Structures are given as C-alpha cells and as structure tokens.
Amino acid sequence: MKFIVAATALCVATVAITSADAAKPARKGEKKAATSRILRKKLPTKGEAARVNNNNNKVEDKVLAEDEGYWERFLQDEVPSITPPPTPSPTNPPGTCDTKVTTTCEITMPDGSTVECKDVPTEGPEDCGPKPVAYCYTITNVGNECGDINSIDRTRSPPGTTESLLGLVAAEDRNLCPGDEVVICEADTVDTCDKSCYETTIEVNADMPGSGFVCSAMDEYKFCVEPGCNVDVETECLATLPDNGGQVPCTEIPSYPPDACPTVETEYCYTISNIGQSCGDITKFERTRSPPGTTEDLIGSIPEAERNLCPGETIRVCEIDEVDTCVKQCYETTVVVEATMPDSFVCEADDEYQFCTGPGCNVHVETTCETEIDGEKVLCTEIPTESPEECGPIDIEYCYTVDNIGSSCGVMTTFERTWTATPPGTPNTRDLLPLFYEQFPEGKEYCPEDPPITVCETVGISTCDKVCYETSVVVDATMPDGFICEATGEYDFCVEPGCDVEVETECTIELPNNGGSIACTEIPVYKPDECPELPATNCYTISNVGVSCGVISVLDRTRTPPGTTESLLGLIPEESRELCPDETLRVCEDFMVDTCIDECYETSVVVEADMEGATFTCAADDKDTFCTQAGTAPPTPGPTPPPTPGPTPPPSPGPTPPPTPGPTPPPTPGPTPPPTPGPTPPPTPGPTLAPTPPPTPSPVGECELTAVVQCTATLENGTQVECKEMKPTIDDCGTVSKEYCYVIDNIGNECGDITTFQRIRTPPGGEDGTQELLSLLPTTTLCPDDPPIRVCEPAETIDSCDDQCYLTEVMVEATMPGGFVCKTDDLYDLCVNPGCRIETDISCTLADGSGTACEDFPGSTVDECGPTPVQYCYKIDNVGPTCGTINKIDRTRTPPGTTQDILEVLIPNPEDRLLCGGESITVCEIATVDSCVEQCYETNIVVDATMADGFLCEAVDEYEFCVPPPPTEQCNVEVDLECKIDPTQTIDGSTSCDVIIPIATRCDKRASVMTWRFNGGDCEQSFNIQEADKFTCTDFSGGAPTEGSAWLTVTSVKDESDVYFDGEVRVGDLFTMFASNTNKGKFDADSFFYVYSDSTKENLIQLSSVHTSCSQNLFLKDKFGSVQLLIFENEFGLFTCFVGATYSYTLSNEAAANAGAIVEFTSTTNGVSDDCLDDLPAPGVIPPDTTIVVDKEILIDMTVRQTYDTTVFVRAETPGGATCSDTATLSFTSGNPNLPSFGKRA
Where are the beta strands (DSSP E) in 21-146? Predict the structure, then answer.
C-alpha cells in the first residue's frame, strides 16, 4: 500500500490517497500502483486572479470530499509508477522487519518548472529569492514481516532542529507489511539569495507486533545554494577649480564669464563593490563618455591580482579628464562592470553620471539718443548749436537695446539707468525693468534665441543751457546657478548754445601841456592860430556775455575820415583770442585829430567769434562819433573911416555919448588843470593790449608817488584769479590762498627816498593789523625813470565759506632831496560771501487734531461732507553759513489760482525774520476745502531771503493733495491678489513667485526616506526612464483601483523580510517608506511594490519592481504603476516636488456708504476653483473704508514649468440688500526649466 502525503508548510501536511482503493485495507503482499503528487506555486499571469496564502501555519487535517475538485486543479493526471522494484535487501533473521527510507528534494522555479535541489542554478540578485521546496520521504518495508511505524524524525540544518513527522501518517496507515511503502511530503522555502548549505536527515523506526524488535532506517540529503555574485558600481566626479578654488562635485561647476572661462580638470572615480555573497573575478570594466561618444576598456587599470572581489570588498579606480567651461555642453559617463563566478555565472552593474557646463550668460546693451529738429531725426551728439535767440526746450529720446549674445539663459534682475546733467552734476537713477517686462514675461529666462528688447524713454532739455549729459545703463542677468552677467553702456553728449559777444567803443584824447585825458566828445574849441593836432585813442572792449567760449576771428574797424576799414585782429596775440563767459578783451589804437577844422569822426567796429568744434559764429558791433570845431579869428584893428558926408544935423542938446564899444575878443585859454586825483579803478579783466597813456607829469620840483594794492587768490583747484573775481558758492567754497602785492611808482620829476611803507589790514585791524613793509623793498630810492617797484607779502589762507570782508590799506611816504615829502596811499576792500541758502518744506494735515496728512484725506459720506479745515505749515531752514532776512513768502494755491505774499501775516514781527546758519522757523495757516467735491488742491510757495550785502537766495516747494469723491455706492468691495514667497527661495531676493530658485529633481544619492502617492490605476500609466531591466510592472485582475483603497506592501527584492511599508492606502493618499525599518538602514537596489485588494493579502492585483537605490534614473514625480514618487531624503537633504507660497487676497470697501457682507469669494487657478469663504475672518463683513487681508497657503509644483492663471471673484451685500462685486487676476510662471520629454514605458 502506497500513500502520498503533501505538506504545504513545515510540520503541516495534507494526506491524499492515491487510488479509490486507498481507503480499503490492503491485502498483505499486495502492490499498489502509486503516483507522485507535488504541489507547485507560481505567480499568476496577467489577467488571472492570484491567490496568495501567507498563512504558513494553517493546518488542514483532512481533505473533505467536496474539496477534491479543488485539489484536482493542481494535481497532475495519474500515471503508472515507474519506480523500479526495490533491490532485495540482505536477508534478515526470521521474524524481523526491515525498512528503507529515501529522500527527494525539488525546487520550483519561477517559470513553474522544477529542478532537483542539488541542481538549483545560480541566480543573480534580480532573480534570486524565496522559492518553494518540496521534500518527499519514501518509507518502504523491505523485510519479510509487517511492522508498525512508531517514529519518523526529521532533522534539518539550518535551523538545526528536529521534528516528528509521524503525524503526517494516519494511525491506520502506519502498519507496513513487506513491499508496502508510504510517501510523505513537506513544503519549505529556500532563499536562493542566501549562500547556504541545507542538510536533512530522516530517521524511521518500526516495531514488529508481538515482539520487542525494532527496525530502523535513515537517509540524508544535502544541497547547497550559492547566489550569483552581485556587484555595484558608483561614479563620482570632482572638479578642481582654478585659482585655489578647491574641489567641487562636477555637477556644481560654476558658470564663468564668457571671456574668462577656464578649462577645468575633472577626476572621475569608480567604486566597484561586491554587495553579494559570492566571490567573482572582474572580467569587464568599460567606460563610455559623451562627448566624444567613445568607449574605453578600463580593465587594465586594475592589476590582475586584484580583480577577484569577494563579499564586502571594494576597488576604486580614478581617471583624469578636463572640460572646457567656455562650451555649453552636457557630459554623460556610463560605466559597465561584469564579474564572473567560477561556475561561469556573470553578474553586471552599471552607473551613469551626468553634468553640464557652460559659460555664464553674456548680455549686451546699446544706448542711442535722438531728437527731432524741423521734422527730421537727429542724433543727440549732432544737435546743432543755436543762438541765444533761437535756442529753447526740446525732447530727446533715449533707447536702450538689450541682447543676449552668449550661449546661456538668465533672468533679467537689473536694468538701471543713471542720467547726469553737468552742471549741476546730480545723478538721476531709474529702474527700467518694468519697461523691459512690458515686452518680455517677468521672471522668464532671457535666452540667446530670444530677440533683442528695446525700451525707450523721453527726457526734456534746453539748448539754451550749456550742459553735458552723461547716461550710463547697467544690465544684470542671473542664471539658475546664481551666476550674474553684467553689461554696461554709456552715451554722452553736450549741448552748448551759440556764443554771445558784445563790443563797446571808447575814445579819449590827450590835451596839450599835460592837460590830461578827456573824452573825444569833449574836445575844446581852439583859436585858429593855436589849434593843435591832438593824439586820440580808440579802445574796444570785447565781452563774452553768453555761456559758451568763442575764438575772436574778426575785428574790423572802419573810420571816417578817411573812410577805410582795417583789421585789428593782429593786435590780439593768437593765444589770447579765446574768450570764455564773463571774460573781456580790450584793444586800443592811436590816431591824430586836427582841431583846426570842422570835422566829424565816425568809428565803427565789428567783432566775430567762432565756437571751437561748432559751425557757429557770433558777432557784435558798435559805433563812436565825435566832432571838432575850428575857432573864430578876432577882427583886424585899423583907422576909423570918416563918416559919410551928409547934412549936418543940428547939435543934440546934452553931452556927447561915448562911442559904441566893439566886440571883446575871447580870453586866451590857459593850461587845463590836471584832473582831481581819485582812487585808481581796478584793472579791466582781460589783456589790455594798447599802452595806457602816461600820467601827466608833476610840475617841476615836485614829487608824486602812486601805490596800488593787488590781490591774487589761488582756488582749491589751482586756478588763480583776482581776489574780487572770486565767486564762491555754498557748493564749491572752501580754503583759498590769497596774496597781496604792492606796486609803488614815482610819476613825478624828482627822485625820492621812501621812508614809510606801512600796511594796515582789517581784520584784525589796529596794532595787530599794522605791518611795516620797508624790509620788503629791494631799494628805497625811486626815481621817475625807474620801473615801478612790486613787492608781495607771504600768502595767507581764508575760508571762502565765511561771510567776511577784508580791508587792506597801504601808505607810502618819500622824501625829496630838498626835504619835500610826498605821500600816497591805496585801499583794497574784499568781501567774500558764498551767499545764503534756504530750504522750505510744506506739510498739510487735517485741522481736527487727528494728525491725518492731507494726502490721506478720508472719504466722507454724502451726509458728512462739507467745509473741512486743513492746516498748511511752512518750515524754512537756513542751511547755509550766512544770515539772511526773509523778505517774501509768496504762496500760490489752486484753486483759486491766486498768489499772495503772506509774510506779514505769518511773521508780523520783522525781528523774527532774521535766520542765521542752522536756524529754522515754522509758520502755519488754516485753509478750508470742500469734502463734498472731488478736487485736487495744489499749493506752491516761494521764499526769498536777503543778506546784508544784498545777495538774494530763494527756496521753493509744492504740495498737492486730492479730496476723494463722496461715496455714490452703497457698497464698493474690491479685491486684489498677489503671490508671495520667502525671499530666500528666490533668485533676486524678492518675494515674487516668478523668480523661484529651481529645485533638484533627480535622486543622485541613496535615500533613507521616500514618500509616494498612491494614484491607483494600472501599469500603463507608468512614466519614467528606468531601463526595462530596472523596472517591471504586472497587473492582475485589472490592476489597482482608481478609487477607494488597497493594501500596499513594499519590500526589498533581495530580501523580502525587509519591509519598508505595509498598510492600507486610499487613492490619492501619501505613504512613506523608511529604510530605518530594516537592520540595514538603507534601501536595497530594488524594491517590490505589492498591491493587494485588501488586508488579507490573498488577492494580488499589481506587482512592480522599482530600482530605488538612486544609482539609476529616479526623479521626483516619476510614476511606477499605481505609485508616484513625491519626496525623498538623503544625506544632501530633503527634496520635494513642491514649494510653499502664499496667495494674499486684499479686500477693501473704500468710499462706501455701508458695510458689505461677503457672500461669495472664489479663487480659480488654471480652471480649478476654490471656495475661500471659510478663510475670511469672522464675521466676514467689511465696514466702509476698511481693508482686510486674507492669506492662503498654496503649493507650487516645481517639477514642471508652467503658468498659473488665477482669477479671484468676490461679491458682497449690504444690510439694505445692495450688492457689489469685483474681480482680480494674477498670472505668473514658475517651475524648473523644461527638460526634453521622455516617453512613458510600462
């Protein structure tokens, strides 16, 4: 009788009788046909229902009749036994029993086939794992007596325990008669990933009925499992930066400026590790690098003696390369390693390393400037020079063209223009980024393929001003790695109005006999016999009264008589012909005038000056006329002719009258007295080219001295000017060096000895200011023919910022040989005054004591509006060094548009109007505005202050505010929306969601934590770029559900006892797998994702294998069947798909009559709506003129670059039932730059 016992677990068995007669008692010696039955378990194929029984300890004592059909699905058809008849055993003693036990062992492979345990093939890490093993023991009575089996003990190592299998045989089946046999089987599992040897010993004892004889049998079975070798290879790359920049991972090579990008040395290191349990020889070690796209065999870099790698051992091989950072290029390195075991099993590992380099972005900016003159475009550098009469205001247009001329993209972060007009030299800066973003999406990277962007602005200037305009523009672009490239551009030009000159003609004549000089128009009339021919001098004073320099090119004089024109240009040295603003030039010429005739002399002069570098000429002319008159001769004396005869009249009574007197001749003119001496005027600025007429000599026997005080100032810039020509201002005043010189001349006709030479200066005045200067004279004797003596005192410094007057007086005395003493003196007064400077500032507040500024004028309801008082205050500051008296405060207010001097009203006491340096005064007035009328009020103020010397300084200011209209709506709710983010997460440090720093999405280092989303669904939705040997996915019964829940178990492929996650998940839920759940503390190379229909784990609906060690392509948002990676954490930190930001909604109810209760508040982004009513602070009502801000946290998906278009809608109702609504929109673009698309693969 033969039995087959199948056990599905250790110590658990199910007995099946092999024939219909098995239940009947066997006849002694009868041989039964037997069949072997082995149960094999395999994973169901796609579409089949899989039933996994994880309850290995379930015991079924017997098979019920109704269950036989169930088992028939797994049992093969009966076949005749092919077991050969047993070999006769040695003859036992009569009356003894003899048993035999044999062991068989089979392993079921994944494809359903079975192999003898001793022949189990070597499997690699991808294929090895727990496999079902069936041990079957055949017990045969080979003796000649029946016996009862009383023990069946099986010992197995590992684990090294002994168990009784007697229970697998029913009590009624334990009696074996000669030739009978019983087969019992048990199931176990063997992990082919573990290198181990398994030894099984089976021992059977049977005793003979009625005797104490016991017969025994024993068998041993031993086999070993050795998994295939398992190697791993990891690639590292370090770059050595120039200039002692240290080493960084190749993925962190920075961008360099395009004109200074170096060649960087890179070191690739490959670490080959044996992470399996079997030794192997490295037989292949190839590296492929693109570019250049070639493969090299690196096996030679490992000494042959070191190529055998046993478990836990590593080999590290490095090689040197270099990259050109001037080239935008991605480098990909793939390394493949194979190891071969002694049994020829080959294991393989590969790794990839990729990084990109490229030069920093390179932007260029170009500036142009144009204006329109007479309907034509003219470059600003070619604006024509215009005369003072024709010049005036014009508009110029600056245009700035930005172009990315490099090979890398960058976000524009700076676009700033600085415009300086000199004078005054104050820079004006403007941010042009808003103009740029009117043509280009804000925050978007500006790339080489993008077209140039031109932004323009218009500025008003005047061609009447002599001004140079300097414009500089700075452009910055920032790359994702933080590299900033900069470009600058400049445009300079000057506007200079035409020069403007004047000429003035003077004529003087020298009277005879030292009669001095008089104007030609005052020539006296001489007697005919005494009329002289007198020397006359014409002087022409040319002045530059404009703002531009010019070179004198024409100086023509026409005189009548004789009616000829001559050029006097030669009288001016060529180097002295340039005349700049406020400079003068004096040219003189002599001619003779005949006083004996009646004649009129007319002199006209024409001057022209050319501007250097400009085709502009300015001109001036003048005319001078005078006349001479000949004297009348007296009558010639002679005898008186007799009277004409005629009748003699009768004699007149009385005395005879005296004769009628004749004409009295004019008196003979005597010598003209010398002119009354007075102070010598200061010299005319500019060169005097004609000699000054000599003074009239003193009478014989007299001495006459002159003394002149001269003062020269040396300014801080080294320029020397006559002291009185100093024109310091508050902006340029400072330390000035001044030098006093004294010129003494003897203009008499006798020599003299200088006995006194004294200078008195105030301040300090008195004795401290008095100085005897005789010691400075080279000689004290001065004769008429001697040149003037000029001596100077050491220079002294003054502060031209001080308001100060200086008086210098010099007194000189000389003694003649006869004892006569002559004296002379001169005064030089100098006042230095930088002028006063005042500033004024207008402020305005409501006069209700609230302190509310007028620019914040509150809205009023119709019932509340009316005349409202406001207070204007004017603060006047003296910010200069000089005292001044306020003499005018003109205030202009519109409406009504009138101007009024309010000085007497605001500062009635004249003593309070004096302000010295650093002092200030604030005065206020009340005005009334109508809050019922929407109106803007503009106030301008002009303040004048006068210094003691008459210098006038002025300050102006203006102030404008508007009264808002009274509400016409019962409800006026408005909404605004902005997106804000932590500035540390943006490229430019702003809070804009447009410039979020890109995130890393690839897992490049083995993770310790991974968070996934359970999407549900089948394998077809997988989306990743892992190779087919790294990712597999199989659906059963339609795959994972798309709604509801499932049970998910994640384990290591290598060792399924390492469970990373086990639990129920709902569609859309996140779940986290932790490497810390295992003793290894890290994820193995591959993981199984088992998806079951419920917690019983009996119905497997999806199984996928994913490479999770990050040595292969693994990115955030990759989909593997029903699961999707969202977060991972490794030694570099936490990486997630999302960045948190804030939507800030601002709701206001300005200028409304009533409060508005918000009844609708929705925010829709890219078609997905969100009801925000619950986010409002209670009670959800906005009173009039009130603003509330609602912040709502959002998540931005950084793994894909996309535009977020959000529309927010709000509607409110008043208590009276009125409604109002408003809509706001927001659009921004965020996310990592788009990468090339990859196709999905199941």
Answer: 50-51, 99-108, 114-116, 130-141
Q: How many residues does the chain have?
A: 1242
Q: Peptide bond before 292: cis, by omega within 30 degrees of 0?
A: yes
> What confidence score (pLDDT) does residue 703 get?
66
Distance between CA atoms of residues 126 and 120, nearest Å: 16
Tell me how far apart the alpha carbons of residues 1107 and 1088 are, in angstroms, rounded to a whole number: 9
Span 774-801, pLDDT tens digits: 999 999 999 988 999 999 999 999 888 8
**Among all chains, which residue has been given the structure tokens 């009478």?**
699
Contact indicator for 198, 157 with CB cutoff of 8 Å: yes
pLDDT-based confidence at residue 90 (cuts at 50, 70, 90) = very low
Geometric angle at alpha carbon 431, from 428 and 432, rounded to 5°: 115
For the chain, helix, strand, coil in percent to 5 are 5, 50, 45
Q: pLDDT, tens digit, for every residue of 829-861?
A: 988 877 778 999 999 999 888 889 999 988 765
- Specify the DSSP class assigned to residue 72: H
Q: What is the average per-residue pLDDT within 387-407? A: 90
Q: What is the distance between the alpha carbons of residues 881 and 803, in angstroms, rounded to a whole number?
A: 7
**Can you spell out the DSSP letters for 875-941?**
EEEE-SSS-EEEEEEEEEEETTTEEEE-HHHH--SGGGGEE-TT-EEEEEEEEEEETTS-EEEEEEE
CA neighbours closer than 13 Å in the CB half-sphere of residue 1182? 30
Q: DSSP letter for 970, please.
A: S
Give ∠ CA 540-544-550 in degrees, rounded to 5.
105
E strand or H helix at 1211: strand 1202-1213
pLDDT at res. 97 = 65
The candidate with the shortest Cα–Cα distance to 282, out of 265, 264, 305, 262, is 305
Instruction: Quickly count: other Cβ atoms within 10 Å of residue 1018's Cβ.
Output: 18
**What are the phi and psi torsion angles at 1173 (to 5°)?**
-55, -40
Distance CA 1017, CA 1023 (A): 13
SS3 69: helix
